[in-house]
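Hi L., both proteins are below.
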Amino acid sequence: MDLRGRAVRSVDSLRVLLMLFHTVAQITAEQEVENLSGLSTNPEKDIFVVRENGTTCLMAEFAAKFIVPYDVWASNYVDLITEQADIALTRGAEVKGRCGPSESELQVFWVDRAYALKMLFVKESHNTSKGPEATWRLSKVQFVYDSSEKTHFKDAVSAGKHTANSHHLSALVTPAGKSYECQAQQTISLASSDPQKTVTMILSAVHIQPFDIISDFVFSEEHKCPVDEREQLEETLPLILGLILGLIIVVTLAIYHIHHKMTANQVQIPRDRSQYKHMG
């Protein structure tokens, strides 16, 4: 019994050590992050990089703004009216992150941690008619905000920390091995713990890759969002139509010139027999 007890205690100790090692490894991974927003030429865009084992495993460039409704007392101090706070993700934010084969996470904190953004990405495989295909997507967004912070909130009634979460989110869907790029604005609705309030997250100038980065600090091939593809088509379509029209005009003029030259070289036979004597 004593030997068995020792063996059980040894196994339990080993489990504890493994759990501690796993926790330390996760903490170490979270610390390997960089905020490179100063390199961006767009003052509203932030650049975040997560590195594990000395290599880049997650890169994210985007501009983010949050529209947060909150209640204040009306002038009669009886009724409530709803105001709106516009909170932009600022440069110099604190960043954390972690990477995994099928799940990656980015966390950003700013204004003395009055605001925190968490973005969760998942990688999945699906069976299609062409065979198994892997994609990744943004599966969850969480935004924590403090309505007692005086820069953006003015005398909020329910001042304090609130959490806004996405619901059944599937955004930025991208084929595995590619990065997601979208210049157009995209909105995500978040349900707030502040009763009957919905926070709107606005993303723009997005370029993200949370999996399968091959080269350090370099995005893989871009997968553009449908809005950008339509805008690109709208921009190039007039040029294409202009080139086609120009080609039609050139071909028409060339055919006319050749036809005119051929008919000019032909000897015209007079219809009046009396004109035959003048020939030759």
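That was the first. Here is the second:
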Amino acid sequence: MADSLLSKTYIDGIYIPAGLLVFGTIIVKREWTLYAALLAVVLGAIKYLRTLPTKVLKPDVFQEFELKEKTVISHNVAIYRFTLPTPSAILGLPIGQHISIGAVLEQPDGSTKEIVRSYTPISGDHQPGYFDLLIKSYPTGNISRHMASLAVGQTIKVRGPKGAFVYTPNMVRHFGMVAGGTGITPMLQVVRAIIRGRAAGDTTQVDLIFANVTPSDILLKEDLDALAAEDAGFRVHYVLDKPPAGWTGGVGYVTADMITKWLPAPADDVKILLCGPPPMISGLKKTTEALGFKKARPVSKLEDQVFAF
């Protein structure tokens, strides 16, 4: 986002050069001081406008962004950082929405086909100049395998924003979240926005159930634990299908008992957010309805009490 008008960026880049221009004119040719001052204002305004965030996403047009950095998390998970056109550029992605990535890929029969998949960045518009994607590659995944094959300097095609969910501060009193695997990405985006908004009065409470197979499958665990330690209004509850000895978290699939224990009870100011593999989401929609939440629609809308990304 734009820096404070009293930040070092503006002092060093605008105020000091403008002052030197005017002061130098006074010394050399005092009668030109007014013109120097006007020139300083014009040049300063131009430089200021260039520092303002520029939204780059277009909903109906694919644009190419270059891979700047790839951070390997495990044998099939990595964080991909893509460069935006300028250091002050932002995606312009509302909290809770996602982008589409497209690529023309060869199919098993030798033909080519454009494949499009949706992903939620783990970075935000408060971090100009780039965006980060956390992606797990699967043997049968078209786009995820394509992403894993990318080298630094290559590009991807992106369009957006997409999605029916947009977070606004204090839209509910309490979020209950259930994520499986890479379904953590939209949840993390919302949680970070809530915690960043505390100083401005966001009082939203969040309880997150994060389900995985083994401890090594828990993506961004350090980040989640750090957020929970930093903010008393955010709590994370881990569930493993194959837990190690001594595991004290949940075991197996996410059950009605876990939801009752860890997530808020049904109320008008409570919303449940779901993201994960389709079979998991299908089962959770039935479970939440049985627990008294309003029945989830096949395709979620913002006003739904149970929303699936």
